Amino acid sequence: MRECLAAFGYTPREARFLQLSALLSGYFLRRQFNSFIGRNSGALAQNFLKRGLELKHFRSITALGGRLIYHVASSSIYDALGDATSRNRREHQFETVRLRLMALDFALLTPEAEWLLTEREKIDCFATLGVPQTDLPQGEFGNCKRFFVEKQPVFLDTERRPHFAFVDAAFRGFSQWELFLKAHRRLFQALSHSDVIFASCHQGRVRAAENHFRRAVAGESAAGGFDVERLRRYFVSRQAFEAKRLDSFDQSKLNALREDKRVFVGEDVERLYRQWCESGNILSAGVKGCTAGFKTELLPHSYEWLSPIQSHERRA
Q1: Structural domain boundaries enclosing 58
Q2: What are the φ/ψ torsions at residue 48 (nearest 5 degrees)?
């Protein structure tokens, strides 16, 4: 796709950066371009910016302190890159721009990655890995079904192992992290190997984020391995529900059963359930509920100057 950008006069290196920044983020800084090409400053960035602005492929936005942000907004760029309907062309609130710049920073930390930058690339990749579309994160927009609508980074490593990143806005709670995990849970469970990366500027949020991951995706305790007490409660509720002893269920208990049923999946869980039904014991040593691993990445810039009011709320 990026070869098509050569017709506009971009060098191969400029085209690679423009593809990454346009399809992953939609926004970039001069510093990020310099980081991509391995320079601190110089005429290369100036020439790249001049060409893009003259061709109206991107426009500059002045933020607080006179800082310049560049928005890749030209339809001709997205047409050339094969993603003509990309929503990255649209203007966004500064809080969204902030997260997009952090996502691009994350990508620059992983130069060897094979990025899945469009919805079609992601669908096709996971189809080759045997994952049906019903297991992909999706949403309805009018009469149109869309996949991976949260626009978080996805890439394959050199062994073609999928990695899913979540760029943390660092608000006080973890509601967006939990929504991300639940939306992707069936995909994580369908893959034989994958990693989920919590990318944040705040090291202090990592432990809580990992606990949310283990509870929402793997059904594990903080120490690792199945949360046996939670698994036992699930088995008790499941057995009662299957026996149609519904008088013991209220709405909260039904909600817990539905959530546990989505977390505890797979042949190992079914084997443990049959074992528990027969003996009342759960011998879960060495059994893992989900093959997805949890990793973290400390991002170098928080861009709080882009949304100072919300940054104050985060600190509060």
Answers
A1: 1-93
A2: -60, -45
- The set of long-range contacts for 2-10, using a CB threshold of 8 Å and a minimum separation of 24, is 2/81, 4/80, 4/81, 5/77, 5/80, 5/81, 7/80, 8/51, 8/55, 8/57, 8/76, 8/80, 9/51, 10/48, 10/51
Task: Give Dmax over CA atoms of the chain in angstroms.
Answer: 74
Domain boundary (93, 108, 126) is at: 93
Residue after which a domain boundary falls, among 68, 93, 118: 93
Which residues have CB under 8 Å from 47's CB, separation 6+? Answer: none
Residue 243 lies inside a defined structural domain of this protein? yes
Domain count along the chain: 2
Predicted TM-score (pTM) of this structure: 0.89
Tell me whether residue 73 is in a domain: yes
Which CATH number belongs to the domain containing residue 45 in this structure?
1.10.10.10
Residues 123, 144: Cα–Cα separation, whole Å: 15
Average pLDDT over residues 141-161: 91
Look up residue 302 and give its amino acid: S
Residue type at position 307: S
The residues with which 28 forms a beta bridge, in sequence order, are 70
Per-residue pLDDT of 54-101, as tens digits, reads: 999 999 999 887 899 999 999 999 999 999 989 999 999 999 999 999
